[in-house]
Amino acid sequence: MLRGVRVGFEAITVTESAAGWEISSSGRQLAPIDLVTTKFDVVYGHDWQPERLTIEGVLSGQLLTLSANFNLTTVSVDVMQAGQKGSALQQVSPRTVVLPNNFYAGYQALAMRLETAPVGTRFPVYVAPQAEINATVDRITDRRLTTPLGPIDLKQVDMTFSNPSPLAVEVWIDTHSRLARLAVPSQGLVVVRDDLSSVMTREEHIRNSGDTSEFIPANGFNLGATLTTATGGANRKSPAVVLVGASGPQDRDEAVSGVPIFGQMAGMLADAGFVVVRYDKRGTGQSGGRTENLTISDYADDISVVVQWLTKRNDVDSDRIAIVGYGDGGAAALLAADRQKRIKAVALVASGGFTGREITLEQQRHVLSHLNTSEADRQAKIDLQARIVNAVITGVGWEGIPQDIRRQADTPLFKSWLLFDPASTVKNLNQPLLILQGALDTEFPAANADRLETLSRARSKLPASATLKVIVPGVNHRLLTATTGEIDEYDTLQDRSVAPSVTDALINWLRGAMPAKK
Known about the structure:
- This protein has helices at 106-114, 261-271, 296-311, 329-339, 356-369, 375-394, 403-409, 412-419, 423-426, 446-457, 500-513; strands at 8-16, 20-29, 35-45, 50-59, 62-70, 74-81, 84-91, 97-98, 122-127, 131-147, 150-162, 166-174, 179-184, 189-192, 202-203, 211-217, 222-228, 238-244, 255-256, 259-260, 275-279, 316-326, 343-349, 433-438, 467-472.
- With 518 residues, it is an alpha+beta fold.
- Helix 3 (296-311) packs across helix 4 (329-339), helix 5 (356-369) runs antiparallel to helix 6 and helix 5 crosses helix 8 (412-419).
């Protein structure tokens, strides 16, 4: 897949014999690569010394053949492409990995060698017929995918290829040392094994003891979800919490920078006696539904569906259901709470208190303030962002704005976010409201919490106790203990767990907002 669009396939066969390994394939890739592979065949000895490589195919309508024969430190190459023939004798390292561009079967040999390679291992890589480069193992991460046939344990190996400038590559391998997934993020390229490409396949970032997979019927589609039962909740009805994620590609676990925020929160809430639902947003992960005309209002409808589904469960107290909106998911949470009276309490965690337009422009100003660029360049970028935002809202003013930027920005969802103002919704709420913010949140700074508190306390029909603002010291937007709170710090933080001070504040408030019946 190239930038999310399927562009081809490759069928790979791995054969082991007394002499070594043979890896062969055939396949087809559409434009912009435009390659038909009729034969790819690479042979290695058992010690992974390459012996020969054969390629036959058609590239951009022109015949392509390549034949390479390896000795210990040299390779003899014959190539014919577009009617032009060439030969060369090149220097290579012993046991080099043969990886010609756009032929992904070659990565199967790398996958088999990565099984026992620790961090820091450097492999010579022959990019036939151009040259030899190096690839280094930077990080190894255990992964688990849930598929229709059951869970599959994988290992993600992050590597850097000197190409000649550094190129980040992800190689995922299964427990049989077979290639499962290959990704080159900077190129938008993903190669995934067929049995792992189903929309019903999702990464399991975390597994709590009470987790079960569910599909919740919505309006013409299902929402893929995980329900976590309350610890010690057998034979009684427990209060329930619906976790509402931020916009973006992340799934129900709200996993960002390797931290499954919602997965961790669900486990801690369940241990505190709550039934918890986290779900894939419409059109994401295992959830169906169309996204081209999606708005925040549609997200709010999905929340209502989940709440209604909970009211029918025998283990849930239907009079004690709360929703927790995270990040810009707080907007959908507020809309749902205004519509669905079954929702008895609302918590906004690291959420916005101003209009989406104000938040978006302020976030860009903050990012630009940390870049080593001139004031004139920063102002030009701010002016461009303001033009884009205004064009999205009004539908006019797109002249001079690149088409790729317009395609990304000019969507009903982004427009609904830019126009959303919590002031128009908070005033109508009858539920108690928790505003929980990290003091080091630089994406939605504490000023957002201050405005939400002001709006909530202006509800004249509710007592002051119906509003609680909690600012948690030393915590960033991802709810992790941090030093600066800046985005560039996320991947370097050693503590990868949601700060207990966050979940403690949430649990204590939920217990007070939805007390057990006497």
